[in-house]
Amino acid sequence: MNTLTKLALGLMGQVRPRPARGASAPHRVLLPPTQDGGMPLMEALRKRQSQREFATDALTEQQLSDLLWAAGGINRPAPGGRTVPSAMNAQELCLYVALPQGLFRYEPGTHALERLSASDVRAVTGYQDFVDLAALDLMYVADHARMALVPAARREAYAFAAAGAAAQNVYLVCASAGLATVVRAWFDRDALSGAMGLGN
Known about the structure:
The protein is an alpha+beta fold. It has five helices and nine strands; from the N terminus they run H-E-E-H-H-E-E-E-E-E-E-E-H-H.
């Protein structure tokens, strides 16, 4: 579906998830993330870029594991520290993963995916046509209820900063692994929230 069609359907409230394709367990434990090797940091920074053309091939299990760990996994088990900074350690970001097999939430504590819906919501994650068939879409959702120590007027800004850090981690892993990625913010908030079963 092209961008103009998606825009028109969005204005009519007609952008909808599709049925999931392929089987997936409700609870999917991921492979341990690769925490050594890879491309040197400065080289990854040099190669970091936004790309809008994606192969439709599924990621390998290791690529999926590494991406999700980089986007918000636990890197210091004793204190439960994460790969992404969070003001006052609120850990407000929830990472959702849209795959052809359904919608999942990443659980950092167990490094696993929990299936939330047997719907393919990729078409609802943005107006651009390339999102429909990307191997996966990541959605960063801030739970403001976790931010009790953060002044209410600052919560959105702090959550944006955390989401930006998570996205940059994903960019660096993609640069190292030779994968394409792009950050997007052009989507129908109400349609996506509804497809994901989120409150307002």
